[in-house]
Write a structure and sequence with these properties.
Layout (H helix, E strand, L loop, with lengths): L2 H8 L4 E6 L2 E8 L2 E8 L7 H17 L5 E7 L6 H6 L1 H17 L4 E10 H5 L7 E4 L4 E3 L3 H8 L3 H10 L7 H7 L4 E2 L4 H11 L6 H7 L6 H10 L7
Parallel strand pairs: 3-4, 4-5, 5-6, 5-7, 6-8
Antiparallel strand pairs: 1-2, 2-3
Helix pairs in contact: 2-4
Length: about 240
C-alpha cells in the first residue's frame, strides 16, 4: 500500500499531507479532531536531514498545538549508513528525534505509530518504538537485523538461527513476532480509520510493552528485570 492509499484509508474525513524527498508531513482529521502526521515513504533511510526535519515538525506541534495527537507513519530501511552521516554523528540526530517524541508524550500529546510497509533498525527505534503504541499492517516487514547478517555478527550458523526463529520471536522478523514481543500493540485490518481513532483514544499512560511481551510469551523476563532494576529486588527464573 502506498502512502496516498494509506492516507485515504486512515483519514476518510480529509487530510493535508504532503511528501517531499520521501518525508511525509501535514495534518489530518480523526474523529472530528485535527492530528499532526509525520513519517517516511519509499523505504527511505533516516539520515541527518530527515531526523532533524521530523524533530522540527514534532517540536512545532508541541509549541503551537498543545496536546494535539501525533501520528507517525513508518516506512524506512533504518538509519542511513553513509560516511557523511556517521561523521556528522547520526547517532546524535537519531537520539534527538527520539527525545522529541518523548517530550511530546510527556506534554500530553497522544502519539501513535503505524508501520505500513517496512521498519528496520534505528529508523524504527527512534520513531515507531518511541510512540505511546505502535501498530502494523499485515503485509508490513519489521526486523532489527536479517538472519544472514545476524549470523555473520554473532558467528552462530544461519541454520541454527533459523531453527531458533521458529520458536523464539526475538530471532524472527515479521509483524506478528513483534506483536508477541509487545513492541507492536496489534496488527490492523479492515477499517483502518476506526483502528486509528480507537488507538488515539487509548494512547497515553504507562509503557506496557514489556508487560505485553510477558503476557504474550515473546519476552518472558523483560518486565521482571525492569521491575527488579527499578525496585532493587531479585529476578525470579521464568
Amino acid at each position: 500500500m502506498n502512502w496516498q492509499e494509506l492516507a485515504s484509508a486512515l483519514f476518510p474525513s480529509g487530510h493535508a499531507i504532503e511528501e517531499s524527498k520521501h518525508m511525509l508531513q501535514g495534518t489530518a482529521s480523526v474523529g472530528g479532531q485535527t492530528v499532526c502526521v509525520v513519517g517516511t515513504t519509499d523505504h527511505v533511510p533516516i539520515g541527518v536531514e530527515i531526523a532533524l526535519a521530523q524533530a522540527r515538525v514534532i517540536l512545532d506541534t508541541v509549541r503551537d498545538h498543545p496536546k494535539r495527537p501525533i501520528v507517525i507513519l513508518v516506512d524506512t530501511e533504518g538509519q542511513r549508513l553513509r560516511h557523511r552521516d556517521e561523521m556528522l554523528g547520526i547517532n546524535g540526530y537519531m537520539a534527538h528525534l527520539g527525545k522529541c517524541v518523548d517530550i511530546a508524550r510527556r506534554r500530553g500529546h497522544p502519539v501513535v505509530a503505524l508501520v505500513y510497509d517496512q521498519a528496520l533498525s534505528g529508523g524504527f527505534i527512534t520513531s515507531g518504538l518511541m510512540a505511546d503504541a505502535c501498530y502494523a499492517l499485515p503485509e508490513s516487514t519489521i526486523r532489527v537485523m536479517g538472519l544472514p547478517a545476524m549470523a555473520r555478527i554473532t558467528k552462530v550458523p544461519e541454520e541454527r538461527l533459523t531453527e531458533l526463529a521458529r520458536s523464539n520471536p526475538v530471532f524472527a522478523p515479521g509483524a506478528s513476532n513483534y506483536v508477541r514481543m509487545g513492541g507492536v500493540e496489534a496488527i490492523w485490518e479492515n477499517d483502518l480509520a476506526a483502528c486509528l481513532e480507537a488507538a488515539i483514544a487509548r494512547a497515553g499512560g504507562p509503557d506496557r510493552r514489556a508487560a505485553l511481551g510477558a503476557e504474550r510469551g515473546g519476552r518472558r523476563l523483560a518486565a521482571t528485570v525492569t521491575d527488579a532494576v527499578r525496585t532493587g529486588g531479585d529476578v525470579q527464573p521464568a
